[in-house]
Design goal:
Two copies of one chain form a homodimer. By secondary structure, chain A is an alpha/beta fold. In chain A, 37% of the residues lie in helices and 22% in strands. Chain A contains eleven helices and 13 strands. Chain A has helices at residues 28-36, 54-62, 125-134, 147-152, 154-161, 171-178, 183-191, 238-252, 258-275, 282-286, 289-303; strands spanning 3-6, 10-16, 19-26, 42-48, 70-72, 78-83, 92-97, 117-120, 140-144, 166-170, 197-201, 207-211, 222-224. In chain A, a hairpin with an 8-residue loop joins strand 6 (78-83) and strand 7. In chain A, helix 1 packs parallel to helix 8 (238-252) and helix 8 (238-252) packs antiparallel against helix 9. In chain A, 50% of the residues are buried. Chain A binds chain B through residues 88, 181-185, 187, 202, 204-206, 208, 220-225, 228-232, 259, 262-263, 266, 300-306, and chain B through 88, 181-185, 187, 202, 204-206, 208, 220-223, 225, 228-232, 259, 262-263, 266, 300-306.
Chain lengths: 306, 306
């Protein structure tokens, strides 16, 4: 089943202990779409500027991603500059230029309206909600956010959370959103805001899936590891790639059983780990389904007793 | 098979967000011995002062732990005071009084000499080495250390590492010991100092077991989770309890296969998680083998795909 994703398609300048790369193709929707495209059809809603050309389009086309929903506007694309020199788990932002994103008003192509899965990548919760409301018939909605929206746009964020089934955020975001330092209590607090499932990402330590308790059924928490990596070239987009693997796998399955969600967590970790191996989207562009399944097996061996 | 452990038996005054407890029985050897005693025979080498009496002895006797190797000296027992008010993952030390530990010279009772497993808990590496040398016939030696010894007693530590099969330390200690921020590279660096296996403990995110590559065989890394806990009453001794569960299980098994080590990691996590549920050794004292096996199952469900 097809996924529609709304989010940023951008240029990133990134510095890590492994080196520096200027103006590589990035943005949450880009990483998400590339990762999810290994599992199912993906359709992107975003806005780009005049600096987005045939070379960038080709990246999406090579993975058969539908970019009819990427609007072209006058001006420059969203630009982010950041580094991970002291801490590979957390980016230090040096510069953010919204550019064409400042006036973004997401429009959903008619051909996208039969998408059964919707992913609201990390953008202004007002825009997330606008997209959510235009797609009332979707089967499953997942989304991401960040501390900026949690701290400074809380009312709008709380509004959109009511329409999200699965929220994917990191430890710090969960703690801040729920005002609780204990992760289990923070998870419950976040799920009380709307989402019936919550994926908390722990960076190099993996991710945990929490479920809202359903009456008459025990709610099982599930933890997927991350792969101990010898070289993290560039962690940019690892979280979005996790989301793409997780949600892409879910959308590819005939039924959403507890086992499907557990495997989706593993596929999320697989895609997140690959994303870190090269700068920008480079590794995801070169990836094969065979490599994905090999790493899935490696994760099983890393964590399973027998 | 029996384990001999050398380390501190002490009194701790602890403050956590859950409250405060003064002068409860503690020390690395105490936590280790209690945790390991659920799996095998344990013998303790330590020194205590005149403040160690029948009440404290009873804690060990209730778990059938051999304390003939606990020497009584004039003066007071080792005392530690610390808090976890801002960060449950890292203690803030307010006071350390070595007391009788300052002149400790470990003596090994003859009855301990047939122990096939030896655990060198976190004490001065000079003492660890002295015990190691007096027990040349042991089958497997594991040990712990901390940043103080890594930073300020490095030559003595490097010496003792040559005689240790399995080192158990946390992320920060591994990174500092190997001078490498990447955990996989740090693990390799530490194993090049002697230990053929290394357990790196990640606090609330679990622990990873690394093996030195053996020629002609792929070395598999294994990651055990920690249990997402709703209430961490007191993390003191969680690492020592992990070590006790891990090493105790190994000592109880007829053969040390890769599967034995993976299950040992789970039992380590189980004992570490129980230790946090009450102040001091309280939870370990009340624990049953049935509860241990139930939590082992919970860890399996937390991490296994099917």
């Amino acid at each position: 089943m097809a996924i529609t994703v709304v989010g940023s398609v951008a240029y990133d300048s990134i510095e890590t202990p492994a080196g520096r790369k200027d103006r590589c193709l990035g943005g949450a929707a880009t990483y998400f779409a590339l990762a999810a495209s290994f599992f199912t059809d993906v359709r992107v809603i975003a806005v780009v500027g005049e600096d987005f050309g045939a070379e960038q389009e080709a990246v999406f086309h090579a993975r058969k991603i539908d970019i009819d929903g990427i609007e072209r506007a006058e001006g420059k694309s969203f630009f982010w500059e950041g580094s991970y020199l002291e801490n590979l788990n957390e980016a230090k932002t040096h510069n953010t230029e919204l550019n064409v994103f400042a006036a973004f008003n997401p429009k959903i192509p008619d051909a996208y309206r039969d998408s059964e899965f919707l992913f609201l990548a990390n953008i202004d919760p007002v825009l997330q909600r606008r997209v959510r409301e235009q797609m009332p018939g979707v089967k499953l909605v997942a989304g991401d956010t960040m501390n900026y929206w949690i701290n400074d746009h809380r009312p709008a964020l709380l509004e959109v959370l009511k329409g999200i089934d699965i929220l994917l955020i990191n430890d710090t975001e969960a703690r801040v959103l729920a005002s609780n330092t204990n992760l289990v209590k923070a998870a419950r607090g976040v799920m009380n805001m709307g989402p019936r499932m919550l994926v908390i990402k722990h960076g190099e330590y993996g991710a945990t899936l929490f479920h809202k308790p359903v009456e008459g059924r025990e709610s099982k928490t599930f933890r997927a590891p991350a792969l101990p990596l010898e070289e993290v070239v560039d962690p940019t987009g690892a979280g979005d790639s996790f989301a793409g693997g997780f949600f892409g796998y879910l959308a590819s399955q005939p039924a959403l059983t507890p086992g499907t969600f557990r495997r989706a967590m593993f596929y999320g970790s697989v895609m997140g780990s690959y994303a870190c191996e090269r700068f920008g989207t480079e590794r995801l562009q070169q990836l094969t389904r065979k490599e994905i399944d090999e790493r899935f097996q490696a994760f099983r061996e890393l964590t399973h007793l027998d």
